[in-house]
Specification:
The protein has 89 residues and is an alpha+beta fold. The chain has one domain: 3-Layer(aba) Sandwich (Endonuclease, Chain A), CATH 3.40.960.10. It contains three helices and four strands. It has a four-stranded mixed β-sheet, with helices on both faces. Strand 2 and strand 3 form a beta hairpin. The protein is globular.
């Protein structure tokens, strides 16, 4: 997400939005990218409520497991770029 890997789109890391801190956000496209570790399996209802609140504020939320990022980085990048290109404001 660094150094504008996705064209001209800028992402901010660990950004507060409301009472939450999101992993990455592109404010221009209102796209949030969350990276989830194993602890999120235990907090599934909290994550669902958090996502619903963020979507209610006009954001689109993408979630990836940490192991997806480590093992399938090209697929993750493709999905993020696709979301950036398809999000309509």
């Amino acid at each position: 997400m660094r150094s504008r890997q996705f064209g001209s789109y800028k992402f901010r890391r660990q950004q507060p939005i409301g009472s939450f801190i999101v992993d990455f956000v592109c404010f221009e496209k209102r796209l949030i990218v969350e990276l989830d570790g194993g602890q999120h399996m235990e907090n599934e209802s909290h994550d669902r409520e958090r996502t619903e609140w963020l979507e209610g504020q006009g954001f689109f939320v993408l979630r990836f497991w940490n192991n997806q990022v480590l093992k399938e980085i090209d697929a993750v990048k493709f999905e993020v770029l696709s979301a950036l290109q398809s999000v309509r404001l």
